[in-house]
Design a protein that fits this description.
The protein is an alpha+beta fold. The protein has helices at about 5-25, 65-80, 85-90, 115-125, and strands spanning about 90-100, 110-115, 125-130, 135, 150-160, 165-175, 185, 190, 195-205, 210-225, 230, 240. The strands form 4 sheets. Strands 2-1-10-9-6-5 form a 6-stranded mixed β-sheet.
Length: about 240
């Protein structure tokens, strides 16, 4: 065997050896741990509550002229019955009442403010001193049995364009039997009935569904002592052929 043949044989042996090694190494199992990261995306939905405001205009069916007339008639009724509680409920807290007596000096005209003073005037217990002359300022202190009545009434009722204020003017006669038991007219004879003519000018304000008096002007016009009396068939007209007028 020459040198060339020997080298060739050695090369073949090495080649076979390397091939065996390569086959073995390729058989090694490698375990790889794979870490997987999962990202979860949450979508938040914002809920918006929508509020709708609806304005409804309600047309009042309240007859303001009628209710104002009714308020005035209730006022007259409270005077006839001398019901102080009812009277007090008919005024604003700071209402004012002006009064005058026809035929007397103007300095005797006066006014009172506030519910308590107004009701005291109607009850006849308010006394005032003006110009050093004491006098009873009650212009509705009638010597009539309670309740007395009203007749010969004329009324004018108006309501403002904004329907927040009203006015009532009226003239009437309060009449009835004398509580003192009777009277005597010199040269004429006995009488047992009197008629008191009054004038009212009343300003009202509407509070809620109620008319309340804000200002009242009261005029005492005259008094008649009645010898004989009679009424119209419907009771609205009172006749008093008295000697004073």
């Amino acid at each position: 065997m020459n040198v060339k043949t020997a080298l060739l044989g050695l090369f073949v042996v090495l080649t076979i050896g390397f091939a065996s090694t390569t086959v073995y190494e390729s058989g090694i199992r490698t375990t790889l741990t794979s870490t997987s990261t999962s990202t979860s995306t949450t979508t938040s939905v914002s809920k918006t509550t929508s509020t709708t405001t609806q304005t409804t205009t309600v047309t009042s069916t309240l007859d303001l002229t009628k209710t104002l007339t009714d308020a005035y008639l209730s006022h007259i009724g409270a005077i006839e019955s001398q019901n102080a509680t009812a009277l007090a409920a008919q005024y604003e807290t700071n209402a004012t009442l002006y009064y005058n007596i026809t035929g007397l000096p103007s300095y005797l005209d006066g006014s009172v403010n506030g519910i308590a003073n107004i009701t005291r005037l109607y009850e006849g217990s308010l006394q005032t001193n003006k110009n050093n002359s004491a006098y009873v300022s009650c212009v509705t202190c009638f010597d009539l049995k309670v309740p007395f009545a009203a007749a010969n009434e004329t009324i004018s009722v108006t309501v403002s364009s904004d329907e927040k204020a009203g006015n009532v003017t009226s003239h009437l006669v309060f009449y009835g039997t004398l509580s003192s038991g009777g009277c005597y007219v010199q040269g004429v004879g006995l009488c047992n009935t009197q008629a008191h003519a009054m004038g009212f000018d009343i300003s009202y304000v509407l509070q809620g569904d109620r008319w309340l008096i804000s200002t009242e002007s009261l005029a005492y016009i005259y008094v008649d002592a009645c010898i004989t009396t009679y009424l119209s068939p419907d009771g609205s007209i009172f006749y008093c052929p008295g000697p004073y007028r």
